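I am writing to request your help with a piece of structural work I have in hand. Thank you for your consideration; the sequence and its tokens are set out here:
=====
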Amino acid sequence: MSLIKAEKLSLYYGNHRIIDSLNFAINAGDFLCIVGPNGSGKTTLLKALLGEIKPKSGKISFDKSIQPNFIGYMPQENHIDRNFPATAYEIISTGVLNRGLFISSDSKKTIESNIKLLNIENIAKKNFSELSGGQRQKVLLARALCATQKLLILDEASNNLDYSSKQSFYKLLKKLNAEHELTIIMVTHDLDHKNLLGNKILSLDHDNPFFGLTADYVRRIHAH
């Protein structure tokens, strides 16, 4: 049974059709990288998965185990105010607000568990504005993890990281996928085949569309 399934999905940006008759299926435990040039519809597709926009035609179906407000979402860092006047802990804690306006004792345990999981206890009390790029990404990831135990969606989460921070971040995502059985969907511009992390690729390149196994996609790239 697919966790998420898109069938003949067509999406528009304004009056412009940006995705046409797209089909794909994501199973529990998959790690899907979405790639494609600027304007190909990567972020638009994420918005559709998050329920922020409706398809013009076709449909996206979710397994009944997935509730739309229990999807962990990590936006592009340039959509986040780096000078937001809050501590790392306060930002992380907003991830549990999908469970209600008040933070219960169970929610506090979830927050503390994810802070420990990402090994960021030492920065939890620091202001978000004081953190490095890599630290900010871990804080935003912890917030997303507080919202979900099943599905994590990331929009170009590694774009502003240096090489070392990016590799550390990728290692963390692979661990979450492999050891914590978290299904991950990640938009990325990083087309180095060594950094195509997941088991599946969805390429929205209109001239070279692809959905399938990462290994097959890499072979296809090398063949060209």
Remarks:
- The chain has a mean pLDDT of 88.
- The first helix runs from residue 42 to 49.
- Residues 69 and 98 are 6 Å apart (CA to CA).
